[in-house]
């Protein structure tokens, strides 16, 4: 029966995302300049709620739909991997009430959104630690992974109970254990060896790292994979983020000159001709500018929480 269901999933054609309400279409970015892997810190839920006199929990609720919206934008542009920072290993320091809510909320979001993601051809993956994570959350993640494992349109990595340093540390611990057991030669351990023991070994390096909310730090997210990522910071709180913001960041990415440590002499020409971009996004503000009609983050830096990714889900 399971084999038959998998065959049915493989044969089923994924439905395309519905158009953006504004009618906007993806910018005409050459295929070789579209990022293959985008990582996003889902930041600003708490501030979004506080600006409206609401509890932080209401901000997290509003951010749920943005997960699918970001996935739709990635699909339309041809991105193959999207990684979202949902709950970090440091987020356990928050109040017990908020932690309890976020655990239950993560479980329910995965449960309620898996059908839609599956229809879109999205393969759900989980990156993070098992210890401390609620068993009910792990169960929903595993069910979503199994159900969508044959989908190929987009890989969506939900990073829950995740930390970049923790991931590297866990990989190093496993390599040390195998070396002590004589199964790995310590003299042959290199970067490729460590990469094999990360949470998602087949995850490609991050090309574009996006952080909304006005903060400008990576907050321990995908440290290994983001070694050569292009960073784009946006003055948009996560609940207000949509596919247009993702496309703007991709346009910024397409204009970057990625050398990976090398350098060659070449004419000073733009990598991406903005004149070929669709009119619906060509005249939009740059990624670092506040989006018209949306609340910008203009509070003083000293008034913001000092803890890294304080507002992530």
Structure, explained:
It contains 9 helices and 6 strands; from the N terminus they run H-E-H-H-E-H-E-H-E-H-H-E-E-H-H. By secondary structure, the protein is of the alpha/beta class. The protein has a 6-stranded parallel β-sheet with strand order 3-4-2-1-5-6, sandwiched between helices. It has a domain of 178 residues: Decaprenyl diphosphate synthase-like (Undecaprenyl pyrophosphate synthetase). Helix 3 packs across helix 8 and helix 4 packs parallel to helix 5. The C terminus is likely disordered. GO terms for molecular function: ditrans,polycis-undecaprenyl-diphosphate synthase [(2E,6E)-farnesyl-diphosphate specific] activity; magnesium ion binding; manganese ion binding; Z-farnesyl diphosphate synthase activity. InterPro entries: UPP_synth-like, UPP_synth-like_CS, UPP_synth-like_sf. Its EC number is 2.5.1.-.
Keywords:
alpha/beta; Undecaprenyl pyrophosphate synthetase; 6-stranded parallel β-sheet; 9 helices
């Amino acid at each position: 029966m399971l084999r038959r269901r998998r065959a049915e999933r493989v044969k089923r054609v994924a439905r395309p995302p519905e158009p953006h309400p504004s009618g906007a279409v993806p910018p005409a970015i050459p295929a070789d300049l579209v990022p293959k892997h985008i990582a996003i810190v889902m930041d600003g839920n708490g501030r979004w709620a506080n600006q409206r006199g609401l509890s932080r929990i209401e901000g997290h609720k509003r951010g749920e739909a943005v997960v699918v919206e970001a996935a739709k934008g990635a699909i339309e542009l041809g991105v193959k991997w999207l990684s979202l920072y949902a709950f970090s290993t440091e987020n356990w320091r928050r109040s017990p009430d908020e932690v309890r809510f976020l655990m239950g909320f993560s479980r329910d979001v995965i449960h309620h959104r898996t059908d839609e993601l599956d229809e879109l051809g999205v393969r759900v993956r989980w990156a993070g630690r098992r210890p401390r994570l609620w068993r009910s959350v792990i169960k929903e993640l595993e069910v979503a992974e199994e159900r969508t494992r044959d989908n190929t349109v987009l890989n969506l990595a939900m990073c829950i109970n995740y930390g970049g340093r923790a991931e590297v540390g866990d990989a190093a611990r496993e390599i040390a254990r195998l070396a002590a057991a004589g199964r790995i030669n310590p003299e042959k351990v290199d970067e490729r060896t460590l990469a094999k023991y990360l949470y998602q070994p087949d995850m490609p390096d991050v090309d574009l790292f996006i952080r909304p909310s006005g903060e400008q730090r990576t907050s321990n997210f995908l440290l290994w994979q983001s070694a050569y990522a292009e960073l784009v910071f946006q003055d948009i709180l996560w609940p207000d983020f949509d596919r247009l913001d993702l496309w703007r960041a991709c346009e910024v990415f397409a204009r970057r000159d990625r050398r990976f440590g090398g350098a060659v002499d070449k004419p000073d020409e733009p990598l991406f001709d903005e004149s070929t971009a669709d009119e619906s996004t060509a005249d939009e503000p740059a990624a670092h500018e506040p989006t018209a009609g949306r609340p910008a983050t203009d509070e003083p830096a000293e008034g913001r929480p000092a803890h890294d990714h304080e507002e992530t889900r």
